[in-house]
Amino acid sequence: QDKIKIGVSYPTPTHAWAAGMNWHAEQAEKRLEALYPDVDLILVNSSDPEAQASALEDLVSVHQIDALVVLPFESEPLTDPVLNVKKSGAWITVVDRGLSQPGIEDLYVAGNNPELGRVSAQYMKGRLKDGDNIVVLRGIPTVIDNERFDAFMAEIEGSGINVLDHKHANWNRDDGFEVMQDFLSRFPDIDAVWAQDDDIAIGVVAALKQAGRDGDGMFVVGGAGMKEIIKGIMDGETLIPVDVLYPPAMIATAMDQTVAAFKSNGPVAGRYILGATLITPENAESYYFPDSPF
Amino acid sequence: MNVEPATPAAIIEAVNISKSFGPVPVLFSVSMDVRPGEVHALIGENGAGKSTLMKILSGFHDPTSGQIRLDGEKTALPANGGAESLGIVLIHQELNLAEQMTVEENVFLGREIRSKGFLDKAAMRAAVQTYLDEIGLDISPTDRISDLTIAQKQMVEIVKAVSRNARILIMDEPTAVLTEEETDVFFRQVEKLKKSGVGIVFVSHKLNEVKTIADRVTILRDGQWIDTRASNDLTPDMMAQMMVGRELSDLYPPMHEADIDAELVLEVDNLVAPGVGPVSFALRKGEILGFSGLIGSGRTAVFEAICGLNPIEGGSIKLFGRDAGPMTVAAARDQGLAYLTKDRKEKGLLLDKQMQPNLTLFALPKFVKNFGLDRKAEEDALNRAIRRFDVRAKDRNITVGKLSGGNQQKLLLAKIMECDPKIVIIDEPTRGIDVGTKQQIYHFIAALAAEGVSVVVISSEMPEIIGICHRVVVMREGHITGVLTGDHINENEIMRYAAGLKREDLQ
Amino acid sequence: MTMMTASDDTATKQAKRPSVDFKTIGPALALLILCVIGFMLNPAFVSEGNLTNLLTRSAFIGIIAVGATFVITAGGIDLSVGSMAAAIAGVMIIIMNGAVETMGTGLATVLLGCGCALVLGIGAGWINGALTTKGKIEAFIVTLGTMGIYRSLVTYFADGGTLSLNFDIRGTYRPVYYDSFLGLPYPVWVFICVAICGWLLLNRTAFGRYCTAIGSNEAVAKYSAINVDRVKTLTYVIQGLCVAFATIIYVPRLGSASASTGVLWELEAIAAVIIGGTVLKGGYGRIGGTILGALILTTIGNILNFTDLISNYLNGTMQGLIIIVAVFLQRSDWKLGKSK
Amino acid sequence: MTMMTASDDTATKQAKRPSVDFKTIGPALALLILCVIGFMLNPAFVSEGNLTNLLTRSAFIGIIAVGATFVITAGGIDLSVGSMAAAIAGVMIIIMNGAVETMGTGLATVLLGCGCALVLGIGAGWINGALTTKGKIEAFIVTLGTMGIYRSLVTYFADGGTLSLNFDIRGTYRPVYYDSFLGLPYPVWVFICVAICGWLLLNRTAFGRYCTAIGSNEAVAKYSAINVDRVKTLTYVIQGLCVAFATIIYVPRLGSASASTGVLWELEAIAAVIIGGTVLKGGYGRIGGTILGALILTTIGNILNFTDLISNYLNGTMQGLIIIVAVFLQRSDWKLGKSK
Ligand SMILES: Nc1ncnc2c1ncn2[C@@H]1O[C@H](COP(=O)(O)OP(=O)(O)OP(=O)(O)O)[C@@H](O)[C@H]1O
Ligand SMILES: Nc1ncnc2c1ncn2[C@@H]1O[C@H](COP(=O)(O)OP(=O)(O)OP(=O)(O)O)[C@@H](O)[C@H]1O
Ligand SMILES: [Mg+2]
Ligand SMILES: [Mg+2]
């Protein structure tokens, strides 16, 4: 009964990135529980912010956790519930999406959303010239999407590249396909697509191929680091020449660090911000996990 | 007619049938048989168990004990109308049509004509058209049931049954909603079927009809078999007496002369509404005003417009001398004007609810006390209504749909009277009511009038109109063609106005 | 005859009672079984903390479902409640944040927010009702439409992100969700009040009777002098009001609103209503059942958080199975029918 | 008398016909207006490419909605179709991937996959039907339950992520979505076939009539010796079959299935059915209207992608408004009633 109980709470995976994250979390659970028999990790996923708030309550009232690793569905709504967990005395590690109130978490591990937008835009600027046209497919309307999009637009500003239009494709292949189909009907001249996410990018590529407009140097930039995309980059695919990393493995990092906080003597606290690396054929190899679902 | 040198063997026989719903017994060892080519009438008071027996004879209910013999052999009839395949067809007392579907679709429901797997609509339409023509019904096979009047629906039921090549045709009050004219047409069909050897069971509360059409009559009282006799041996009066178990005095109450100087309570001037040409008439305090006419002559439409159930397109209405423009139903009720619908199943009662919520629904504001419903008062009202209108339900908590047809009608009357109206319009007051209760209702109407309530009686039963009304308005095709008083109120006169042979210019 | 009637009466009572009761206690029984399962999985299930959490959580769906009971009883349906809650929460937050400058961060601002929520709820409900009755458009289509509209409005107000309540107001408002009175959190009290009012309204007033009558047969209702359009519109207004109450206790919980607030609440609310024994086609409504239905749904979610025996991915499967089984058990009058 | 009657007859016919026609052409009119708006926003709207896209896209919802027309006409409802599509797609992919080793990546494997899809569709539909009829559980609850079950199963199979079809099979299967025959893509042909079969089944067979009768009045249907349970179960089976067809043409599009496949298709399908004029409470169904309803819904989405006049965030608002207005226009027989 003296086990150290660590709750791990994150959104139910409904798309590939989240599935990758889930996979990394499960791997980390197995690894850590084998390594430390007195550590019990409890993985809970929730389908919406509401349910996640409830799950946090249950982790405290039922499992009496000693620490919480949480990837909030959304920052705002989960700030108070996480604060309540904090008040129960638990150690708090926040992953990916920061809470809206500083100082609650003991440890913060995150990717960098604005950086993802910026890096993507920089790549575009590098390959396109003044007067070229791009279209943008965005994710689900959320803070993450806004951060990425705003940073992208800020970076592209003044470069002479025209952003013809941007529509939400909801981080979803089907929507990516349909929105791109309509962009193609609407705009006769598109030089590049920022799809922001690898799932959307796959839909975009299907639409391009269907319309036969995948030639003449047109390219698509996705994001996150899906293994199929990275494989394609390694193989020298020209339609999706690069990817911008947003590693799902960050949750495993967070779990490692949280266990370390109980197990190691050194101080564990602070912020780990993982960069949004541009994956190119040169460095792709090191980001390729063929066993992960993502 | 009934010399019966050798009675043909019965097609179907019910032997010692008993039936209980749960613990409530409704039939006690009843026997009855039907022979080919005869019309066997079944009569009895409301709730005597006629419909129940008919349902058992056609497989819709299982008897609790006793047996059904088909062609002399004990049979378990297939459920849910499956007995049609054995040639046994039932016309339910409650209309049994799918409202959103067309006439043709209803008539052929469950035994569509197909060719190569697909429906042969043309053939079915043609067949239905033939039947409709034969029976003189002026509707199209493609009309939706919901657009028909209740009498037309009943005729469709008859067409549906007739079209099924039955050996046994069981008809539960098919004539309740028909006028005499239509009944005549219908009887000609029955005669035809009879000649072709079909055995017919006929349930009706109109004893004259029974006398006319039936060869044999079986009488039920309170679920007990009383007698089966050749109809030649019976008079309507005898039938009535055997049904109710006592001597019936005059069916109609003595007529009190109306006060022709009494104040006008309802004045209708050039009213135009859907299905109603301009009509004008007036109603006095304490008067019983009859409205007569053929099916679809617009009698119902007039009063549905007056009571706020249908929009008014023109004309004016005065209530108790005051202008009462278009009213809501609630406003009409609050001013003492109440309308009792003839369509008790679709418009009158919530069939899936019990008696009590049904009874008080129309006058519900009366039962509100401190923002809540006064349930004690409601309970009292039900007790009163059951006594006053002799509603016979063996179980008070039964859903209204399971009450016998006549008792539903009584409950509906009670429901409307619950608001103590000063003017009450009763559309087909005795539809499906047994003679004994009919008498009670007529006396009740007369008593109301004597108390100063004005009553409008819309009825397709000529004797009823003649027997109780002070004055009779006759309508045809949405217009009033005549107003009769005193000695002029007789069948001949009414028919002439109704059929358009005579027309008087009003005002 | 009189004797007959009397004996008949008691006989039917004996025959009827069990089946009636079974339908009534069905949901209660299902809830009880769930609780036993929860306790067996983890005794902490019956800890005071967990039970309080459970009740408080049920309050949202429960309050909304009370409104839905009226709508469904009167033969309608409202798919917009989840989005409506999100939109009301969003506007409430905007208004309260905006009022900080002039009114400060005290109780007055919170009350202003709550007042606006109620007005919005009534208004939104009225729109649904009027479009259904006056516009003669199917309730399903109307509320599917307003569902999309409200949801996208909140996205618009939040600029695709999240609307958050001013931090200081949150301090004032927080107790409404987190504090207790006589051991029960305030949301539970609100839930209890709404439930009692709803029960009285449906079972003890003319209005409730009218709802039932309309759901049972609209033509009969019309012929019985009931203003059908008005009563139907009112059911949607009540639904809107209930959504507003739910929102008022929801906002202090998470202090924010976004496009994902209240997603699928409509299905949960309708499910609670139907699990509780109300008939989807109208004409028969049970507030008590609805409350139990809401508790059942919340308990299922709670129990699934109690164990990691099953893959998280299969939560939905368990949830679906439990709902079906719960309703199946409750509907099985056939059992009694057979044995009788 | 005869003359009178005759004139009456024509009078009522004149009065009736236009309103009937208006109800029939209502959805067509709404679609036409939408197309005109689309054209005015951007002439590229009527380009061949866009129209082809539009039709192909409508095929999924359209095919599913044809099935839904049967279910709804017979008085039922099926909320599980979206999840069912996702689950069938997932299992199809798993099976085809698994068969590669033994059967190669040729046509045989694809046919095996399609066969399995059909079997699964029929099975899933049958489960819904049997639970509703034999289990006597409300269709809403049953299909809400199976909706959760199928959705969580596909998440489980895909481990929360995406199931992808083997790349070589994709090559074999691709043409089913992307190739055309006589200028129309195959999905459109499938859609046309399903629509025609559906229309014939509903309007030209006894089965279709039974569906209508059951939806109109179950007791009447039962008393007409119709096997109500069987017909109702069959409507769900047809629905399942339609979902299977839709899935068969969906999978080759992107060659993948995930937890987000087919989300909200159930609402879209039901909306298409009702926009098309079918009555939600059953008893009146129109396949032609359903097709138009599906086209209308797809066109709305398409048009919104064609303009940046409105904030993206307000897409849902526009969608909701258009749906409500479309149905309102179509329902407004009162106009004709007034003018008469
Ligand atoms: N399904 C049922 N469940 C319980 N009681 C029933 C049911 N059907 C009929 N009854 C009862 O059986 C009795 C006989 O009813 P039935 O309908 O046979 O009468 P009836 O002779 O046809 O009367 P009416 O002339 O009024 O039509 C009534 O008391 C009725 O309430
Ligand atoms: N709302 C309406 N709109 C158009 N026509 C209507 C409307 N209501 C009734 N009618 C028509 O008016 C005519 C009169 O019908 P109504 O039911 O009033 O006749 P009735 O004399 O009461 O007949 P019944 O003998 O069937 O009781 C019918 O042809 C009917 O179709
Ligand atoms: Mg563990
Ligand atoms: Mg009867």
TrEMBL record, chain B:
Belongs to the ABC transporter superfamily. Keywords: ATP-binding, Nucleotide-binding, Repeat, Sugar transport, Transport. InterPro entries: AAA+_ATPase, ABC_carbohydrate_import_ATPase, ABC_transporter-like_ATP-bd, ABC_transporter-like_CS, P-loop_NTPase. One of its GO terms (molecular function) is ATP binding. It comes from Roseibium sediminicola. Pfam families: ABC_tran. This is Sugar ABC transporter ATP-binding protein. Residues 12-247, 260-502 form the ABC transporter domain. PROSITE patterns: ABC_TRANSPORTER_1 (PS00211), ABC_TRANSPORTER_2 (PS50893).
